[in-house]
Amino acid sequence: MSLEDFFPPFAPGEPDDDNGKSRRRLPIRQIVPNLVTILAICAGMTGVRLAFEGRYELAVAMILGAAFLDGIDGRIARLLKGQSRFGAEMDSLADIVNFGLAPGLVLYSYVLNEAGSFGWICALLYTSGCALRLARFNTMLDDPKRPKWHGAFFVGVPAPAGAGLALLPMYVGFIGPDLGVPEFTAGVSAVYLVFVGLLMSSRIPTWSGKGAGLRIPRTYAIPIILVAVLYVATLISFFWETLTVTAFLYFCSIPFSWREFQKRTRRDQEFAARRETSDPVR
Questions:
Q1: CB-CB contact of 37 with 90 (8 Å)
Q2: Long-range contacts of 136-143 (CB under 8 A, 24+ apart)
Q3: φ, ψ of residue 153 in degrees (nearest 5)
Q4: Where does the chain cross the membrane (predicted)?
């Protein structure tokens, strides 16, 4: 008996080499990105455990760490030329665990439990919104008529950003303000969580940072680098305060991304209309 009798082949049906032929030996470059994705799942699930143990700051750090790993696994796959359908499916499953299930459970353990069944229902709605967002994202990737410039936008708030926004009540709680009414805080946090879930499942365009092709004047390069250094420095020195401000700035960026998306859509429509009127009648 061999391992093949116990485990199925990795990514069955996919070619393993550049010539489209299948090989018995698998390049390590195809395994590394999936290993990073598995580590992200472990981080998200560990965050849930830490929340149940009352170590909430570490729990949030684990979810944020999962978001970081989620951000680099695709880049590692492209760098190593190790993309695969298997990896794409694995990434989607990791996202629902790390950014749908884990934040809902961590936030419920932290504050939503004070709202009883209402808090639990809101946690379920948030997780459902995340699942719907991810399912729609996967189906949109197969749309051949999608304009290339759409790559600069997400449809709805992306799952990692949604998880970061969902944990905002915990950031504020770690800073220290105590309202003295746990039921009220839990109710507000529950409603807020549903709001974030709706943003994730909505069709509101948000900046993706991918495929934008942004170019900046050379004179702006040094100021932008200094701003990035300042952000990292404040993040290290005032971690929860900086995350709170970052969440609010993200909310403020949504109307601007929506306006830019509508502007580009109108430009495409005007171009299509001019082309139709300029074509000769056949």
A1: yes
A2: 136/201, 137/92, 138/88, 138/92
A3: -135, 150
A4: 31-52, 117-137, 149-172, 184-200, 220-239
Q: Which of 132, 61, 69 is nearest to 103 (CA)?
A: 61
Number of domains in the chain: 1
Tell me the whole-structure pTM to 2 decimals. Answer: 0.84
Spatial separation of the C-alpha atoms in residues 9 and 200, rounded to whole Å: 35
Tell me the C-alpha distance between 198 and 192, whole Å: 10
**Residue 86, domain CATH:** 1.20.120.1760
The C-alpha atoms of residue 175 and residue 65 are separated, in whole angstroms, by 20
Domain of residue 126 covers 3-278
